[in-house]
Design a protein that fits this description.
The complex is a heterodimer of chains A (501) and B (706). By secondary structure, chain A is an alpha+beta fold. Chain A contains 19 helices and eleven strands. Chain A has two domains: 57-95 and 147-293, Metalloenzyme, LuxS/M16 peptidase-like (Cytochrome Bc1 Complex, Chain A, domain 1), CATH 3.30.830; 316-498, Cytochrome Bc1 Complex, Chain A, domain 1. Chain B is globular, with a radius of gyration of 34 Å. The chains are: A alpha+beta (501), B alpha+beta (706).
Chain lengths: 501, 706
């Protein structure tokens, strides 16, 4: 195909080839879909593999169906702590002498329990506390000497791993890495060991790291503060109420034992799904998966979350004061991503708030010049349970949240009062198609999509079939959801307002 | 034992053996076992074609038929380094309005709609050292996409309305630049390293944004946007020859023009140890950065520095500050190198206020260790393995390969630079790392910046050395066109004005003040340095003032009595220039006693909330016979926080801002004992009141012309 001087025959060949590829291109989604194979182990763990050999690399994505939505009072933030602990190694990784280390870790646990109960006493015995603390510190120090710091990371670095990381959200905890594709077996050994033989070492240091992470991402960020208050006000019953990072008081008190219990409850193989995309042979992957992950004993699938966010009885309006210029966010309760209305809501957000030709950008930024940034999106804070369609505006200098709220209200009212134009509907469909195709180019984005769709929507095929439901959205669908959800009673307004020093 | 059971036994032994053998070939390995990895599949290097058009435009093309999309990206040799200090922001605004401002045939809004209805994107922008353009579009719309892209590049019209919009965005960003501790630290650290006005650190201010005109934008575009200054990369579902023809057709009539580039900015770094601090009272975590100037990517030591960076960040900063000490979430250490100018060597972290100084010490120690001790064999092997084993990710997509070529071509780097770098890294030894660290790091001469809340620090910052406090107050904008008055803004203005009058003492008190005598200290900033003076003044309302100031040149008296004015210096007496008299007269009219006493002669308009002197104030536009000024009220107490107005300086018009503070009550009136004045954002003077008296016996001779 790389001919420079093109003879007649080559021309013909080229024409035929490009004609063929034209046919293939028309079915990009189905073509890629055919390359996907799945395999479920007897213990319930599922593997989804998309085979493609464009480059000798592979992206690996382990999706644990547990997030901060599974947390109750007292242990907020524990899903994320668990995520951090999953990088601390195993009985063989990260230790110089596990037998000795495990004794010290057990001792620390009991000292920690004594300390906690002593500190909670009505009349704390300060001398006793001091002694216990000293013993705890020296045990921690001794245990630290047996640790091989960050060995988990280093083994992956050494193998050429890229993007080793993990993310915890309200809905899920996801562990990701990309490797040169011939290192597949190393990942099998590492990742299965991680969930078979985890050791929660350096726990107390890591808890401090997470407190710093809370300060970094939330407490020193005006917008972080706004979102925390906004979600707390929006969800009165459902655990989307609290932030993923958790409350500081919980972070200070969660114990190793809490994490162990949480791990056993939510990290059984039936609650884990792995998506693998890249230069691999699915059959070989499945064989290795049997061998390595088959070792993990099965456990019960966790009970589904019981609490459902009840109806909101009236509009809520909250303010966060910070040394910052103003920002405003509006939220509207909407059903979960599994709802049949999801596509129409997706179209609604796109037409209202995505792009330079969107209604909000045209009105607030281009015409009125009262905002410098506006947007709309679904899935705040996450998708699996009923969530929010959110609209935000960053007022231009000299303009206020109030002006922006008023202009947003006008635009949203129009969405219910009139039908959208056919150009707007086309814009939504084409932009979504383009985004889906661009997403397919990336191994890691594709792995994330397959895992998400399989776990949350119950079928990975949706990564490709979604284009059909996008194409099926009508103007009437969009108007209907606008009328249903964009109403004042269903709304929460959050404002960041300037606090003087 | 029966025979058949023997057979069975033998069979089962065989089965067992077979099973064991199977297990050997499929044996589980533990993470730390030795793996015998199969050979890595070969990277299929794409055939990248280079085309140079007659007008000098360079294009790199690569076919990628996997997905039905087309991507074009270009780098334009331009950058904010080529704008001038007084118009900082020009490059960025030009880059933005190039896209939004439309072309001779389509408005920007029409382009937005057309592209978005196709699911396509065209964006342009100008950054520090480059301009960029990109198009990303579904294959079927490629012709429309290319025509819009070329139209924007060749025939932009820089519509005024979109220039306004870009300026609003920029002013808004300026107003928001101190909202976030991380952005403060990054910006100010960069200023410490390059120098505040160096083009590699400079940032726009309200005044520089206001100074930018459409002509400036058009001229900036005209100077740099020529095909011979542009290098393109194209990839996607096309036939390379076809795409070449399309681009040729789109751009070949664009004439080349030789550009005279200004001299590249100079980076003249003086190594020194400094401790710098910015107070942020609403945070519980400090943001710390430290470092000095960095280097260039084509430095022969660069491969060793790449290895050193991994070790410094991952094996030292991360392990010590995060894993072992639990002090921080994201520490780093990186010797920064750029293509065409020295980068920045920086280490940074964030930690709770209490552990700020402790964390700084740990980081200083790690830099020192790096530059004095050899790394371990394990560290070296790990860093090299990590780099070499993940090298394949530099080639995992055609877009990466072709855009890297474009970037190298743009900076005149060899196109195989990355392969040479790999060869270099392969050869790096422990000695190389130490030698490179020794020659590129100066651990005793680091500049340290802490942004945080010093009230919560465990060990105080001065423990690290003399602390230089950086003022990040945003200089106020020069006079802004006032918004139109409305009944609402006038009645609100009047209401707030009355509250302010009440706050400083009430109408009754103010009406009864006939004169004021003040003794004061004055610190005047001049070109030659600060000048300390003291003096006194007697104001007889409404329009008489007698001022006497002791200066290093002797005592100077300045008197304004209504329409007359004169000065007395050691050289003798002279009439006052009319312009000077007017400035002084104007000043007296802004004395609260004067303007609060006659509210009926004023128009007072509420403008809005506005940051003033580090807080949010209520901005009132006060208009009287001889012009208007802004009066800023404290949002809680309604006491005047200061004024701003246009005045005249030795070099022409200036915007003056006076911040009033340290209110004390004298004779029932609240009086600011401290006034800090700035002109065009630069500090001008500090006035500290020592004593105030009201309604004194005024010697009438003071105001008599002899």
């Amino acid at each position: 195909m790389r001919k420079r001087s093109i003879g007649v025959a080559a021309w013909l060949l080229l024409l035929i080839l490009s004609a063929c590829s034209g046919v293939v291109r028309g079915q990009t989604f189905d073509t890629v879909k055919k390359q996907v194979k799945t395999h479920t182990l007897p213990n319930g763990m599922k593997f989804i593999v998309l085979e493609r050999h464009d480059a000798p690399v592979v992206s690996l994505h382990t999706y644990a169906d547990v997030g901060s939505a599974q947390e109750s009072y007292g242990v907020t933030g524990i899903s994320h702590i668990m995520e951090h602990m999953a990088f601390k190694g195993t009985k063989t990784v990260g230790t110089k002498d596990y037998a000795e280390e495990s004794k010290l870790l057990d001792k620390m646990d009991s000292l920690y329990n004594m300390l906690s109960s002593d500190e909670r006493a009505i009349n704390p015995d300060s001398a006793e506390i001091k002694n216990l603390q000293a013993e705890f510190d020296s045990t921690n120090g001794a245990a630290g000497k047996l640790v091989v710091t960050q060995e988990y990371w280093d083994l992956t670095r050494e193998k050429g791993g890229r993007g080793l990381n993990a993310y915890t959200s309200n809905d899920a905890t996801q562990y990701i890495v990309s490797l040169p594709s011939n290192r597949m077996e190393f990942w099998m050994a590492m990742e299965s060991d991680r969930f078979l033989n985890p050791v929660f070492r350096e726990f107390f240091q890591e808890r401090s790291v997470i407190m710093e992470e809370r300060r970094l991402g939330l407490e020193t960020q005006p917008v972080g503060k706004l979102i925390e208050e906004f979600l707390a006000a929006s969800f009165k019953a459902h655990p989307y109420h609290h932030s993923v990072i958790g409350h500081m008081s919980d972070l200070k008190n969660i114990s190793r034992n809490d994490v162990r219990t949480y791990f056993h409850r939510y990290y059984s193989p039936s609650n884990l799904t792995v998506a693998i995309v890249g230069d691999v042979d699915p059959e070989q992957v499945f064989k290795m998966a049997d061998l390595y992950f088959g070792r993990i004993p099965s456990g019960p699938k966790p009970e589904p979350l019981r609490t459902v966010e009840p109806q909101q009885w009236g509009e809520k309006h909250i303010y966060v004061e910070a040394q910052s210029q103003p920002i405003v966010i509006l939220g509207f309760h909407r059903p979960s991503v599994t709802s049949s209305e999801d596509r129409a809501l997706d179209a609604l957000a796109n037409i209202v708030g995505i792009g330079r030709s969107s209604r909000l950008y045209t009105n607030l930024v281009k015409d009125k010049k009262i905002a410098i940034q506006v947007g709309a999106f679904n899935g705040l804070p996450d998708n699996k349970y009923p969530n929010l369609l959110a609209v935000f505006a960053v007022p231009a200098k000299g303009h206020t949240n109030e002006e922006c709220i008023q202009a947003i209200e006008e635009e949203l009212a129009r969405m219910g009062a009139e039908t959208i134009t056919s150009d707007e509907l086309t814009k939504y469909k084409r932009a979504t198609k383009k985004n889906l195709i661009d997403g397919m180019k990336s191994n890691s984005r594709m792995a994330a999509s397959l895992a998400f769709n399989d776990v949350v929507l119950g079928n990975w095929e949706e990564s490709f079939d979604v284009i059909k439901s996008v194409d099926a959205v009508t103007a009437a669908d969009v108007q209907k959801v606008a009328q249903k959800y964009l109403v004042k009673k269903n709304r929460i307004i959050g404002e960041l307002i300037t606090e003087n020093e | 034992m029966k025979r058949d059971s023997m057979v069975l036994h033998c069979l089962s032994v065989f089965v067992l053996l077979a099973l064991m053998l199977a297990n050997v070939s499929f044996a589980q390995k533990a993470p730390k076992d030795n793996f015998s990895f199969p050979a890595l599949h070969k990277v299929e290097m794409p055939n990248v074609q280079k085309v140079t058009l007659r007008n000098g435009m360079t294009i790199y093309l690569v076919e990628d038929h996997q997905y039905p999309t087309i991507d074009l990206r270009a780098l334009v040799k331009v950058g904010s380094v080529y704008e001038t200090d007084d118009k900082a922001g020009l490059a960025s605004i030009t880059g933005s309005v190039l896209r939004t401002g439309g072309t001779e045939t389509m408005t920007g809004d029409e382009i937005d709609k057309m592209l978005e209805t196709m699911g396509g994107t065209v964006e342009t922008g100008i950054e520090e050292g480059l301009g960029y353009v990109y198009l990303s579009i579904l294959k079927e719309d490629q012709d429309k996409g290319i025509s819009v892209l070329s139209d924007i590049l060749m025939h932009p019209v820089f519509n005024e309305d979109k220039i306004d919009l870009a300026k609003i965005e920029m002013r808004s960003s300026i107003s928001r630049r101190n909202d976030n501790i991380w952005s403060i630290a990054s910006r100010e650290f960069n200023s410490l390293i390059y120098g505040k006005m160096n083009p590699y650190a400079r940032y726009p201010e309200y005044a520089t944004v206001d100074a930018i005109t459409r002509d400036d934008i058009a001229a900036f575009y005209e100077k740099y946007f020529h095909p011979n200054n542009i290098v393109f990369a194209a990839w996607g579902d096309f036939n390379a020859k076809d795409m070449q023809k399309k681009l040729q057709a789109a751009f070949e009539n664009w004439p080349s023009v030789k550009t005279e580039y200004p001299e590249a900015p100079k980076v003249d770094y003086q190594y020194k140890y400094t401790v710098n601090f910015i107070q942020k009272s609403d945070v519980n975590q400090s943001n710390i950065q430290m470092g000095h100037i960095g280097g260039l990517m084509n430095d022969p030591d660069y491969p060793a520095l790449v290895v050193m960076n991994q070790i410094l960040s991952m094996d030292r900063m991360f392990k010590v500050l995060r894993s072992k000490e639990g002090l921080t979430y994201a520490p780093w250490g990186n010797y920064g190198a750029d293509y065409d100018h020295p980068g920045v060597f920086s280490c940074g972290t964030q930690t709770k206020s209490q552990s700020t100084v402790y964390a700084v010490r740990l980081m200083l120690n790690e830099v020192k260790r790096m530059a004095t001790e050899p790394v371990t064999d394990e560290e070296l092997a790990l860093a090299k393995d990590s780099y070499l084993n993940s090298f394949v990710f530099n080639f995992d997509s055609k877009s990466k390969i072709v855009t890297r070529m474009m970037t190298y071509a743009y900076y005149n780097y060899p196109l195989d630079f990355i392969d040479k770098l790999r060869e270099g890294v392969e050869k790096v030894t422990k000695e190389d790392v130490l030698r490179a660290a020794k020659s590129h790091l100066q651990p005793d001469k680091l500049q340290i910046l802490v942004v945080g809340n010093k009230d919560e620090f465990g060990e105080p910052l001065p423990a690290l050395g003399d602390v230089n406090v950086i003022d990040i107050t945003i200089p106020s904008p020069p006079s802004e066109a006032s918004p139109e008055t409305t009944d609402e803004s006038l009645s609100r203005g009047r209401e707030l004005f009355d509250k302010a009058a009440e706050a400083i003492g009430g109408a009754d008190v103010l009406m009864n003040i006939r004169n004021t005598w003040i003794k004061l200290d004055l610190l005047q900033s001049t070109e030659a340095g600060d000048m300390q003076m003291s003096g006194e003044a007697t104001i007889v309302y409404p329009d008489h003032i007698y001022q006497s100031i002791s200066t290093p040149m002797g005592e100077i008296k300045m008197v304004v009595a209504g329409e007359n004015g004169w000065m007395v210096s050691p050289q003798g007496r002279m009439p006052m220039q009319e312009s000077t008299r007017k400035i002084i007269q104007d000043n007296i009219s802004r004395d609260p006693v004067n303007f609060f006493a006659k509210p009926d002669e004023l128009q007072i308009q509420f403008i809005g909330e506005k940051p003033f002197n580090g807080a949010t104030a209520l901005d009132l536009l006060v208009t009287r016979k001889n012009g208007s000024f802004h009066l800023y009220l404290d949002g809680k107490t309604y006491l005047p926080a200061g004024v701003s107005y246009q005045s005249t300086g030795p070099q022409g018009p200036i915007s003056v801002e006076e911040a009033w503070s340290d209110y004390r009550e004298i004779d029932g009136m609240s009086i600011p004992f401290k006034t800090t004045a700035s002109a065009n954002g630069k500090k001008m003077s500090d006035v500290t009141v020592k004593e105030v008296k009201h309604n004194i016996e005024v010697d009438s001779k003071l105001f008599e012309e002899e």
